[in-house]
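Input record, target 12 of the design panel.
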């Protein structure tokens, strides 16, 4: 290596020694009691806060699961009711078509038509009423876990 290179290296080592970070022996340093107490209290408060937050998150998860399961059961019940109504309506239409094909006169066909329309109107009205009450029941049951949790958390004495 050249002399200039050696000189630069020596200067760098000398500068590094002059500006080196002082070494502190941590074992000999004592933390004041007040700071230690504050640190312990902070750690304890953080642990308590975490425990409360974890408990609240678990409770919220349980509520969401209960609500979801209730809503799923309600949707299944609603769908089964819709399939049942569809089956009844299709069967009524096939019965009407069979009766209409067996009609011997136009007045008889008109009477069958009037009777079929009246029955279908009554059936559809009853089905709409059933669907309405079922939808109300499902909504009430699905919201019950949330409602009970809110009332439990915000009890008014």
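The sequence produced for target 12 reads:
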């Amino acid at each position: 290596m050249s002399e200039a290179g050696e000189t630069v290296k020596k200067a760098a080592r000398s500068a590094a020694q002059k500006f080196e970070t002082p070494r502190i022996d941590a074992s000999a340093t004592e933390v004041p009691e007040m700071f230690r107490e504050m640190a312990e209290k902070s750690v304890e408060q953080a642990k308590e806060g975490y425990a409360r937050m974890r408990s609240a998150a678990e409770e919220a998860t349980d509520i969401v699961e209960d609500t979801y399961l209730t809503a799923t059961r309600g949707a299944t019940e609603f769908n089964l009711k819709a399939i049942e109504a569809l089956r009844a309506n299709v069967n009524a239409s096939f019965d009407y078509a069979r009766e209409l094909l067996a009609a011997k006169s136009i007045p008889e066909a008109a009477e069958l038509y009037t009777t079929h329309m009246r029955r279908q109107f009554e059936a559809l009205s009853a089905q709409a009423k059933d669907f309405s009450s079922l939808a109300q029941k499902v909504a009430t049951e699905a919201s019950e876990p949330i409602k009970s949790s809110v009332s439990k958390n915000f009890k008014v004495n």
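The CA atoms of residues 126 and 132 lie 10 Å apart.
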